[in-house]
Structure formats: C-alpha cells, structure tokens
Specification:
Length: 251
C-alpha cells in the first residue's frame, strides 16, 4: 500500500501518531507533491479537530477552552465575541502568559476610539508585568502612546522594544525615526539598514533609509534606495498586465 494511503488509513482509525510519522517522512521526501500536501492538510485538520474535541470533553472549564474560542472568533472577525472570551479566560487565569496581549490586540481590532486605546494599553501593560521581555507588547504600548500624542513616553517604549528584539523590524524603524528627528543620521541609517536586511520588501524601511541617506549627504546611496522603492511600488508585469495596458490604450 502506498505511504499516503497508509496515512489515510491511520487517520480514519484516529491513529494520529502513526499518521503523523508517515506524513512527516512524505513531506521530507516529496515537499511539493500535491497528493502529499493533501494528506498533510487532512492530517493536521483532523488532528486539530480531535484535539479540540478532547479538550472540550476532558477540560471544559479550563481557561484554554475560552482562549481557543476567542482565537476562533478572531479568525472570523468577531472581535466583540473574542474580547468576551478572552476576558473569561483571564478571569480564570489572570497570570497566564499571552492572554492580556491577545485581549489588547482584540480590543484594537474592535475599535481605535480613545476608550478602546486606553483599555488595550492597560492589557499590554498587564502583559508586560507578567512578561517584561515581550517586545511586541512594548511596541503596542508605544504605538498607543504615540496615537495619544504622548511622544516622550512612546519613545521610551519603542527604544525598549528594539532593545528586547534586535530582529524586530517595526521597532527598528520606529527608533530610526526618532534618530532622524534628532538629526542623528548615522544611527538612523544603521537601524534602517538592519530593518531592510530583515525585511527586504518593507517599503517604510526603504523610504526612511532613503531619507536618512539624503539627509546625511549620501546622495548616491539615496538614489539606490529610491530605485529599490520604485521597484517595490511598481505594478507587477506580465502577459495579463500587458493585455490590460493595451486594452486601456484603445480609443
């Protein structure tokens, strides 16, 4: 029997460990095969559904059930329901890592009015009390403070986020903008070059690097960045695009 058929048989019998071993081997040997990818998707979906069913059966009062419900609501764009479920989870386990962050994020997805920003900020700050090394929570606090026009406080949190994660492009860009405002162009350039290396297609990073080069008097480098930015902003080329162009040229 072919291996992918064996995996399907194990899945039908809910022998997920055996199916998983076969799927992992098939993915290593045939990473681009459509049949293998189908079996892999089927395996992960059924294993996921089985794990959820067992969690609801074995631990229905666990905060994880509420957390999972909240995450499902988020994927469906039902942020009001997600917020309610995260609050239930936090009530059951207020010291669980990541719950306050997720609630803060759901609040921001639900609304950006001042009250929602204040609530979200409190949740991100609560997350930082539990996990002071959470760079993303630091960044979110900084973003909210910036939106509230509290720039000095925001700057401190942007700095902290970049210190915690030197591979966090958004934080690097935010700190680089602070350096640009302070006319510390060499420092800004170093940060932005790192951000571009991490995310070569990040238009914000390329734009700010172009401006930093220009302000530092490095015109040739600024022109190179301008060319890179133009490439990123250029519409995709191809046969269909060319056809649309010709169609648009018709009188």
């Amino acid at each position: 029997m072919p291996p992918h058929r064996q995996a399907q048989c194990h899945l039908t019998a809910k022998r997920f460990a055996q199916a998983g071993a076969i799927v992992a081997q098939l993915e290593r040997l045939f990473p681009g095969d459509a049949d293998v990818l189908y079996v892999s998707a089927n395996y992960h979906m059924k294993a996921w559904n089985d794990a959820i069913y067992r969690m609801y059966q074995k631990a229905p009062s666990s905060y994880r059930v509420d957390q999972l419900s909240a995450e499902v609501f988020e994927t469906q764009g039902k942020y009001t329901e997600a917020v309610a479920e995260y609050r239930k989870a936090i009530e059951k386990n207020p010291k669980a890592i990541d719950l306050h962050y997720r609630l803060g994020r759901a609040l921001l997805q639900q609304s950006h009015d001042p009250a929602a920003l204040a609530q979200a900020r409190r949740e991100f700050e609560a997350e930082l009390l539990l996990n002071p090394s959470d760079a993303v929570a630091e960044y979110q606090v900084a973003q909210i403070l910036a939106a509230e026009q509290k720039k000095p406080e925001a700057a401190a949190h942007f700095e902290r986020a970049a210190e915690l994660r030197s591979d966090f492009p958004e934080a690097l860009i935010a700190v680089a903008k602070l350096r640009l405002d302070a006319k510390r162009y060499a420092d800004a350039i170093a940060l932005l070059e790192r951000a571009v290396k991490l995310q070569p297609r990040n238009e914000t990073a390329h734009y700010n690097l172009m401006m930093a080069y220009r302000n530092a008097g490095r015109q040739a480098d600024a022109e190179k960045e301008k060319a890179e930015l133009d490439k990123l902003q250029k519409p995709p080329e191809g046969e269909f695009t060319d056809f649309l162009k010709r169609l648009g040229d018709k009188k």
